[in-house]
Write a structure and sequence with these properties.
By secondary structure, the protein is mostly helical. About 70% of the residues lie in helices and about 5% in strands. It is built from 19 helices and 5 strands. Strands 1-2-3 form a 3-stranded antiparallel sheet. Strands 4-5 form a two-stranded antiparallel sheet. A hairpin with a 5-residue loop joins strand 4 and strand 5. Helix 3 runs parallel beside helix 8 and helix 14 packs antiparallel against helix 15. The N and C termini lie far apart (about 60 Å).
């Protein structure tokens, strides 16, 4: 077998969550009252933009969640196939040039020389103190000082290729609409360009062009240059920024799996049953809120670190150690972040339990479980959904802050927080190494901005008060 599949805990949970989302999509499609608000999300331009951008991040995260250990070359050993100890992913395989083109140390974006001077021996045998040539960056050019023309030509070719792809997709879309709705091909094209559809197709094709142009340009340029430069050990910063996407998505999504059950069950129970149950639940989340979150997370991470150091035989590879710490961090963040949603659901349940339809169900002999299942929970789901989407961006930023203070993900795992943490000393250098921080900031900013836009559209679609305002 050319590879040995590796199933990390976070990988299993990610694809389990993906299966749940797929089942939810099938369930929603069969119910018009649930399909209508989601349809309104897609029909808004901001929603279309956010979904397309988030989809790119999700694809990268899923590709980076398919892990395996490649087989070593057969050296005539009859004992069987041996596999490498390093765990890689499908994304690592796709981005193998970025991963393997390692320079000696720092180099600036699109540079052809290192960022620091070194003693070198010239062809005539003399020693000079100069910036050495990069091993991979702009190595295809005989005269790299004229690399601007090569970069411009590469950008033009990649952009034209992305434009051709968008035109092909547009033509196929028009052919499909002609077959389904009738009319001429030009008529369907005019309908789309005039905005005659129920969906913002002009926005869709504009974003499709921008995203494909960005991807094609990055692929074309990264083959010959280090687009975001290299770090202290010569690793490509663009590869690090893309590799950090999975960590951010795991923190933002798996934490929700821990937070939601606690917030929903305890919040509804406190608001519906009141009395001593409400007092106990309020005491729990008030006590938990009185403990500084960073200190609680730091204590839990240190306990896990001591356990892993004392039991190294339970973790065969470095990736498994890093994955266990990531999973444990998601659990701790979930345990410490459910209290806000619990308060909201408690207050809303206190109001709903006095609603006329709830009082009527109780007078007709309906059980508490039936009332909670049929009347209370469905009327709280818009709050749950809005809170989850809004909390996603906060959790992504929380990982960066925790890694910055040293209690986040494992140092061996690439993440935006670790990139920002390593940039502390780089910003104090002279000259300043600014590109690692910039790459992490841009990647994280785009994800958080898209998540916030999506949260805003979801809130407008699902909040009954916002629907009444419109």
């Amino acid at each position: 077998m050319p590879f040995l599949p590796v199933f990390l805990w976070t990988d299993i949970l990610i694809f389990l969550l993906l299966a749940v989302v797929a089942a939810a999509v099938i369930y929603i499609r069969r119910r018009p009252h649930l399909r209508a608000p989601w349809k309104s999300v897609i029909q808004r331009r901001r929603g279309m933009i956010a979904i397309m951008v988030l989809s790119c991040y999700v694809v990268i995260g899923l590709l980076d969640s398919l892990h395996y250990r490649p087989a070593l070359e057969d050296e005539g050993d009859a004992t069987g196939t041996h596999y490498a100890t390093e765990v890689v992913s499908v994304f690592d395989r796709i981005a193998q040039p970025l991963r393997q083109q390692v320079e000696k140390t720092y180099s600036a974006p699109f540079a052809h020389r290192l960022y620091v001077k070194e003693m070198q021996t010239t062809e005539d045998g003399t020693l000079v103190y100069d910036y050495p040539r990069l091993k991979y960056g702009a190595s295809h050019l005989d005269h790299p000082d004229n690399k601007l023309d090569d970069i411009i030509n590469t950008v033009i070719q990649a952009t034209l290729l992305s434009l051709l792809l968008v035109i092909i997709v547009f033509i196929l879309h028009c052919l499909f609409n002609r077959k389904r709705l009738g009319g001429s091909l030009l008529g369907q094209a005019g309908r789309i360009t005039r905005g005659g559809s129920d969906y913002p197709l002009r926005t869709f094709y504009l974003m499709l062009f921008l995203l494909t142009a960005t991807v094609f340009n990055l692929v074309a340029l990264s083959a010959d240059y280090h687009v975001f430069g290299t770090d202290k050990v010569g690793q490509d910063v663009l590869y690090q920024a893309l590799k950090s996407v999975r960590t951010g998505l795991v923190i933002g999504t798996l934490t929700t799996l821990v937070m939601l059950p606690l917030a929903i069950m305890l919040g509804i129970a406190a608001g519906y049953f009141r009395g001593w149950i409400d007092d106990i639940i309020q005491y729990i989340y008030t006590t938990l809120n009185s403990i500084p979150g960073v200190l609680l997370i730091a204590a839990a991470v240190l306990i896990l670190q001591v356990y892993m150091n004392n039991n190294p035989e339970q973790f065969e590879t470095i990736a498994e150690r890093a994955d266990m710490r990531l999973l444990f961090l998601c659990i701790i963040l979930g345990v410490t972040s459910w209290t806000g949603l619990c308060r909201i659901l408690r207050a809303e349940t206190l109001k709903l339990r006095e609603a006329e339809y709830v009082l009527a169900s109780r007078s007709l002999g309906a059980s508490n479980f039936s009332i909670l299942h049929k009347h209370i929970l469905p009327n709280l789901m818009h709050l749950v959904l809005i809170a989850v989407v809004l909390d996603f961006s906060g959790l992504v930023l929380a990982e960066a802050v925790l890694s910055y203070v040293g209690v986040g993900v494992d140092p061996s795992m690439i993440s935006w927080g670790n990139m920002i943490n390593s940039a502390r000393l780089e910003m104090a250098r002279d000259p300043v190494v600014w590109w690692s921080l910039t790459a992490a900031f841009i990647s994280m900013f785009i994800l958080v901005l898209a998540a916030n836009l999506f949260a805003d559209v979801v809130r407008d679609a699902f909040d009954p008060r916002m629907q009444g305002a419109r």
